Amino acid sequence: MKSLNEIAAKAQSLSQKVRIAVAMAEDANTIGAICRAASEGFVYPILIGSKARITELLNPFSIKADAYSIIDLPEMDLATREAVRMVKTGAADVLMKGLVGTDNFLREVLSKERGLLPPKAIMSYTCALELPKYHKLLLISDTAVLPCPDLDQKIAMVNYSVKMAHTLGIECPKVALITATEKVSASMPNTIDYALICKMAERGQIKGCVIDGPMDVFLACDPAAGEIKGVQSLVDGDADILIFPNLETANAFYKGLMLFAEGELAGLIQGTTKPVVVMSRSESENSKYYCIALSCLMAEER
Amino acid sequence: MEIRKLDQMFDILGTRTKQRLVAAWAIDTHTIMAVSEAVKMGIIEGTLVGDEAKIKAVCNEHGIDAGTIKIVHSDNDLAATALAVDLINKGEGDFLMKGLLSTDRYMRAILDKEKGLMDPGSILSHVTVAEPRNYHKLLIFGDVAIIPLPDLAQKVTITNYLIRTAHFLGIDNPKVGLLAASEQTLPKIPSCADAAIISKMAQRGQIKGATIEGPLGMDLIIDKESAQIKGMKSDVCGDADCILFPNIESGNAFYKTVVKLLKSELCAVVMGARVPCVLTSRGDSERSKLYSIALAAMLAYSS
Known about the structure:
The complex is a heterodimer. Chain A is of the alpha/beta class.
C-alpha cells in the first residue's frame, strides 16, 4: 500500500466488521470519524459514556440504529475501564480513546491486572505518513509514547514498525535510523545504539527488513544524498520506516509535515495485545478516519 | 609485495636504505647479539647506548666485531635510556629498542611528557605479527601487553595500528576480525557491542584501508569451514590478516598459545610513539628478536 486511501480501501474490504470500543465517546471529532467508518460498513462502534450526550452527538449522522451500540457509563474512569475490559475479554477488537485525558486512558491500558500490555512488553507508537512529496507511505516512530527510548525500546520500535509495514503489504521495508549524521560517535549515544541495531539485523537478530543508520533524513529519503555524501546504504534514500532517537524529534518532524507539507497520517499504539487508537484533537478529521482504518487492518492481522 | 612469511621482511629490508636502531642500556648479551646479527644481515644500522667497557667486553666474549656498531657511552640505565630517546628526538635514530632495563623504566622514558616520544593525545599499544603453523598467512593482532581493557576509542586506535602494520607489510586491504564472545550482537557483552560499533564505523568510512567484520568468534575469524557452517558470509571469515582482541587476557593467551603450543614464530612492536619501539623479552627466541627488530625497521619507514 502506498497511500492512506489504500489502507481505507483495504479496511472497507474486510470480511467482518471490526468492533471498536470507544472510551468516553463524547466528543464530536471522535464521533465524526467513527461514524464515517461505520457508515462505510467496516466498523461496529461500541460507544461508552453518557448515553444522553452520545445520542446528541450522533444526531447529525444518519447512522442506523443497529449499526452501533451505546453503553451508558457517564463516569469517566468507569467508562474507560469498561472499554478496556471489553477489548481484553474479546467483546471488542479495537480500543479507542474519546474525551478522556491521554494519561488516564493509558494508565488503564497499562494496568497490570486490567490492561492490554503483556508482561514486560514495551509500549510505543508508530504512524504512517502520506506526504505529497514522497513516493510512498513513510512510517515513523515514536511520535507519542516513549520520550527517550533506550536500546531495547528502539529495537521494539523497529520491530513494531516493521510489523505494521508487513501488514501494509511492504514485504521487506527499508528502515532508517535517524540522527543528525551518518557517523558513529560515542559522543552521540544514539549513533552507538544504531550501530548495534544494524549489526543485530545483519546477524539475523532483527528480521523482515533491511536496516541502516545512523543517518540523517536526507540520506534516508533522498536518493541523491547518498551520492553527494559518498555513503552506500541499503536504505539508499528510499526509506519505508524512520526510527527517531527521541520523542521530541519525531513529534516535531511529523507535526512540521502536517503543518507545512500537507501531510496526513494514520497512527497506532504498539505493543498492546489489541490495537489501541489514541488521536490528538488537533489532528484532521481525515487523519482520524485513517487511524481507525489502520487499526482495523492491524486487528485483522492478529 | 605482500609479506606472507616473517623471513620476507629481511629480503625487503636488505634492498632499502637502512633504518637506524638505537638500543637503550644495551649492555647484555641478548640485546647486543640480536643487534649485531641484524647489522650483519644488512637490515639495519645499530647504535648501542650503555657502558662502553661492558659492551666491548660482551663483543669480545662472543666474537662480535664492535666496529660494525656505533657505541654511545652512558653510565647507568636511566641516563642511557634518556640519551637513547634524545638521539631519536634529534633525528639520529629511526627506532628504539629496550636493553637490560625494566620494561617499566623503558616505557616511562617513552611516555615522558617533555623528553619522551609521544605526541599529545597519542596512545601506546602493542602489536604482534605471528606466523602460525597451519595458517596460510601472517596474523597481526593486539593488544596483548599494554592496554588491559581498551575502551571503544582505544580499540579504534588499536585497529588502526593493526591496519597500518598490515599496510607496511604490503597487505593493501587487510581483513580485520573483531574478536568477541559471540558473533551475535549481544549489547550487554562489551566485546560484542564494541565490535558491532567498530564494524559500523568502518562501513561509514571512519576507519579506512581495511575490510572489518565483527563481532566474530575465533573459529569464524580463522576457519572458513566454521563460517560456512554458521552461514557467515563475510570476506574476513577464515581469511583474516588482523585480529582485534577485546582485552589483554584473551590477546595474551592467544600470543602464548601461538608460541608455546603451536611452536610458531612471532614478533612484536610498540606503536603510538613518534617511532616504533622494540620491546623484546628475554624469553623470546633469538629468531623472534631479529624479527621484532625487522618489524620495527619496516614500520620506521612511516615515521
